[in-house]
């Protein structure tokens, strides 16, 4: 099964993450199928970028997001809706 989850990068005690599509039985730092964005929890406010088109593609293929990635997808979708509403 394909999972959408975080891949840790950064120095000791200074994490940053990539949001990736990966086979669920693979280790965290294994080869990924696709990189969907990034997430930096150390900044205020949280800094993240997510390619929602690629996320929707993987979700349509049956991928399951982790809890953290699911919350980031929700935040990105809300941000995109508010941006589109302000343009109208």
> Major β-sheet, in short?
5 strands, mixed
* Lateral strand order in the biggest sheet: 4-3-2-1-5
Name the CATH superfamily assignment.
Ribosomal protein S16
List how many beta strands DSSP finds: 5
What helical percentage do the residues reach? 25-40%
Overall domain count: 1
Low-confidence segments, given as residue ranges, are none
Structural class: alpha+beta
Q: Assign the CATH architecture.
A: 2-Layer Sandwich
Assembly state (oligomeric) = single chain
Description:
It contains 2 helices and 5 strands, in the order ββββαβα. It has 88 residues and is α+β, with helices and mostly antiparallel strands. It has a single domain, classed as Ribosomal protein S16 (S16 Ribosomal Protein, Chain: A), CATH 3.30.1320.10. A hairpin with a 2-residue loop joins strand 1 and strand 2. The radius of gyration is 14 Å and the shape is flat. The termini are far apart. The model has no long low-confidence stretch (mean pLDDT 89).
Highlighted features:
S16 Ribosomal Protein, Chain: A; alpha+beta; 5-stranded mixed β-sheet; 88 residues
Write the topology of this structure.
Elements: E1 2-11, E2 14-23, E3 34-40, E4 47-50, H1 52-60, E5 64-65, H2 67-87
Parallel strand pairs: 1-5
Antiparallel strand pairs: 1-2, 2-3, 3-4
């Amino acid at each position: 099964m394909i999972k959408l989850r975080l891949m840790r990068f950064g120095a000791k005690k200074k994490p940053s993450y990539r949001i990736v599509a990966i086979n669920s039985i693979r280790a965290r730092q294994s080869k990924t199928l696709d990189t969907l964005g990034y997430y930096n929890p150390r900044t205020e406010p949280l800094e993240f970028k997510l390619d929602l088109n690629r996320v929707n593609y993987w979700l349509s293929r049956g991928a399951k997001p982790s809890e953290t990635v699911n919350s980031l997808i929700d935040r990105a979708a809300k941000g995109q809706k508010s941006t589109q509403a302000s343009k109208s």
